Amino acid sequence: MVDILHRVGIRSSVAEVYGALTTTEGLAGWWTTNTRSEGDNLDRVLRFRFSAGGFDMKVLELDPGKRVLWEVVDGPEEWIGTQVDWGLDQADDYAVVLFKHQGWKEPVEFMHHCSTKWALYLMSLKSLVETGKGAPDPHDVKIDNWN
């Protein structure tokens, strides 16, 4: 198994970042404007739709200010069964996000694409929290034919 790993510091509190990761409005502000949620607790399914397709994530863990964990239950074959793990910590004026998209079976070319896109979306999350304006799909930077 292989993982995508990123770290970003966001000038804010972990509570603000946690809100951007756990509310439909927050998620739509940095990842994709076409975001829906069934419910607002554990085991709910988050539905993210992009011009190139979509993903459904089941919320496995919500630890306010510390961690958010999702499992991919529908989407591209390479993603199904993987987990998206958001570790949060406060370091002075920064909320530090330790991001993991874990459990990839092998480092296929699509994984390289997804790693780059995750980095772009993490910058979108940073921008949303710090300035109030992110760059979610369809306003994100397109990097290739997969978008």
Describe the structure in brief:
With 147 residues, the chain is α+β, with helices and mostly antiparallel strands. Helix content is 27%, strand content 41%. It has a single domain (2-131), classed as START domain (Alpha-D-Glucose-1,6-Bisphosphate, Chain A, domain 4).
Describe this structure in words.
This protein is of the alpha+beta class. It has one domain: 2-Layer Sandwich (Alpha-D-Glucose-1,6-Bisphosphate, Chain A, domain 4), CATH 3.30.530.20. It is 27% helix and 41% strand. It contains three helices and seven strands. A seven-stranded antiparallel sheet has the order 1-7-6-5-4-3-2, with helices on one face. A hairpin with a 3-residue loop joins strand 4 (53-63) and strand 5 (67-74). The longest helix has 23 residues, at 109-131. It is globular. The protein starts with a strand and ends in a 16-residue tail after the last helix. The mean pLDDT is 96.
